[in-house]
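Record pair follows.
FIRST:
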Amino acid sequence: MQEVLSGLSTGFGVALLPFNIMLVLIGCFAGTLIGALPGIGPINGVAILLPIAYSLGLPAESALILLAGIYYGAEYGGRISSILLNVPGDAGAVMTTLDGNPMARRGEAGRALSLSAIASFIGGTFAVILMSLFGPSLAKIAVTFSPSDYVALMVFAFASLASLVGKNAWKTFMGALIGLMLATMGIDANTGIPRYTFDVPDLLAGIDFLVVVIGLFGMAELFYLVEQQVSGKLKALPIDNSFVRMSDLAKTKWTILRCSIIGFFIGILPGTGASVASAVAYGFEKRFAGSDAGEFGKGDIRGLAAPEAANNAAAGGAMVPMLTLGIPGSGTTAILLGALLLFNVQPGPMMFMQRPEIAWGLIASMYVGNIALLVINLPMVGIFSRMLTVPQHYLTPIIAVLAFIGVYSIVSNPFDLYLIIILGIFGWILRKLDFPLAPVILGFVLGGLLEDNLRRALSISAGDWSILFNNWKSIILYVCALAVIVIPALLNRWFKVKKPTLDVK
C-alpha cells in the first residue's frame, strides 16, 4: 500500500501540472466529440490523433496523458449518438441503445444522458482505483488465460444473450446466428480459403465492424425515418428538459457497482474489450432483476446504467495488462502501447521503477480525466438533448452524412459505402420483422473471438476437444453460463407456482 501511495504521489505531481491538466481537458473534450460521431470510436480517434501528438514534440508522459484522455473521453461520448439517434458511437455503446434510445423517444433524453454520464464516471473511477491497488497482481492472473479459457468466456457471453430474448427467443438466436455468419466472411486465416465472399474481391478481408454497426443501426434508422415520413406517421419527439433524479441514483447504485466490477475484470482480459463487458453486464443485470425486468429494453434506467458503467470500467481494466505487462488489453490500448514504444519507453513491470513519471502520471491523469469528463458532460446535457428538437425530416440527411463520412474516413473504400446501404436495408427489414439488432452485432463481435480461440485451442491439442474442459477457469465459466440460463428460468417457474398461493392468502 505504501508503494501505491508513493506512486500516486509521483503521478499526481505530474498530472496536476498546469500544462498536463490542459492536455487532459483537451483530450477529454476531443474524445467526447469523437465518440459521439457514429462508428468512429476510441480506437480510430486515438489512431488518427497519435501522429499529431508525436509531431508536437510533447514529453512522453504528456503525449500519453493526451491520448488516454481521448480514449476514455470517446468511451463517454459513444453514449450520445446511441441515446439520441439509436446509432452506437462504438462497439461498447451497442447495449446503450436498448434502453437509452427509448428514454429519449419518450422525452427523457436529458435524464438518460445525465444518468449515463454519472454511471460512466463511477465505472471509470472504480476501474482506476482497482488498477492502482491491484493492477500488477490481476494482470498476472489475466495472462494465464489460455485459448480454451477464452472459448469458455465467449460461451458465457453468448449465454448472457439469453437475457435479451424477451418474448422471441428464436429471433434472438437467429440474430446472433446472423452475426456469426457475417463474422466468418473473408479469407480463412488458417487455410487461406475465401469464405462466403461471392467472388467479390472487396470481401476477401471480411466486413469491418464499423461497416456492420453503421449499416445495421445508422442506415436502418435512416430508412425507418424515411418510411415514417413517406407514410405520414413521422411525429416530433417531445421537447426534453429532464435531468437525472436522486431516486434514479438510489435505484441504480448497486447496478452501477456490480457492473463496474464486471466491466473491470473483463476489461483486463486481453482481446475482450468494452463490447463484451457491456453485453455481459447488461445480461447479468437483467437476469439479476428477475421478475422485475419487464421494462428492460423499453427505457429502464438500470438497463442504461449497466452497460455504461461496464464499458467505462472495461476501458480502465484494459490499461492494466498494457502498463504492467506490455500486453494490450484492447485495440485502443494496442495503439497506446505503440505510442509508448514510439517514445522509446518499454511498458511492463520495470516501467513503474524506471519511468514512474509515465506509469503513475498516466494513472493519476485518469482520476483527473474522469472528474473532468463529468464536469464537461453534465452541463452539456441540455445542449445535446436539444438535438431532438430538430425536425426529424432533417435528421435523415444528418444521419446519412455522418454514416458516409464515418465509414469513408476510416476504411477509405467506396465499396463499403454500398455495403452499408445493403446492410441498412437488411437491418430495416429485420426491424420490420421485430428482430432485435443487438444480438446481430454481439454475434459478429464475439464470433470472431470465439472462432479464433477455438481453433487455437484445437491446434494446441491436435484436435482433442477435451482441452476445452481441462482447467478450473474454463469449468467455472461453463458453470456460470449454465447458471445464467437455468437459474432465472427455475426462479420464474417457482414464482409462478407461489403466486396463486400468495393471492389466496
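SECOND:
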Amino acid sequence: MKLDRLLWIFLLLCIVGCKNEPVNIDIDTTELLENVKLISHDSMEGRKFTERGNLKTRKFLNEQFQAIGLNPVYDEFIEEFSVTLKGRLRQRVFPIPKPLDDLSNVKDTTVTGANVVGSISGLTDKTIVITAHYDHLGIQKGYIFNGADDNASGVSALLTIAKYFKNKPTKHNLVFAAFDGQEAGSLGADSFLATYPDKNNIALNVNMEMISHSDFDPEIFIAGTYHYPYLKSEIEDIATEYIAVLFGHDDPYNKEQVDWTFIGDHKTFHRENIPFLYFGVEDHKDYHKPTDDFSTINQEFYIEVVKVVIQTIEKMDELLYERNN
C-alpha cells in the first residue's frame, strides 16, 4: 500500500512537472545579460532624457538595430521628436531650485528626444508593436540612477526578441520601438503614435517595463486582459520553468492592486483603442533608487520572462490573424 501511494505521488509530480516544462526557445542569454549590464553601466550616467548618457544609449541601440538587420520604419532608425515643456512638466523634467512655488512664470522649454524604431515584415498588413523605454532618471545628488530593471531590462529584451524573430516569419509585421522620454511623461510614445504612418493597422502593443527583478516568489504580471479579455485565453497556459505568470493590475475596481493601465507607454496605445499587453513586476526595494543596478536583478527570472514574452508574441500572432481572417 505504501509503495502504491508513493507511485501515485510520483506520477502526480510528473504530471505537474510536464505542465511546467520549459519551452524550447533559443535565445542568447549571455548577450541578453551583457546588454542589461552595458545599458545600466555608470558610463551611461542614468540615461536621463536629453542628457549625454541618454544619447550614448540611443547610439548603441541604433548600432544594435543595424547589426540585427531590422528595417527602418522611417528614413533612419533614430526618429527625433521635439516637445515644449510647460509649467509643472518643465519643473518635473528639469527641476528649478526651490523656493519657487509659482510656476506660472517659468519659461517654456523646447527639448529634443528620439525613439529608435525598426521593423520586420510579416505576411499581412497588420502590425504588432513591441516597446520598451530606454531613458531613466540620470544623476541626482551625486548618485547615478542606473535603472537596470527600469528599464534596461525591457530594452535589452527588445533587442533579444528582435534577434529571435529576425529569421522566423510571422503573420504580422513586427515593429520594435525603444522609446525616449517615458520618465518625463511618455513623450516618445506619444510622438511615435502621432507620426506612425500606419496606425490603423496596429493590432497590438506589447510593452515591457521592469521585467527582471522579483526577489521572493518569482512572478511576472501581464496587464491589459481586463480591457481586452479575448487576449487572455491564448496565454493562460504559457509554459514556464519556474516563474508564476499572473494577470492583473488593470482592473480599476480592484482596490487591492495598483491599476497600471495608465502607468507606462502602453497607455498611449490604449487611449487610441489599440489593445495592449504590459509585462512588469510590482515595485520593489530598488525601484527608482540608485541601487537599481545590474547586481540587484534576478538573472534566471529575467531570462525566463523574456521567453514568456516571446511565447506571448507567437501566440498573439496566431490569435489576431485568425480573428481578422
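COMMENT: Residues 30-76+113-324 form a domain with the Aminopeptidase fold (CATH 3.40.630.10).
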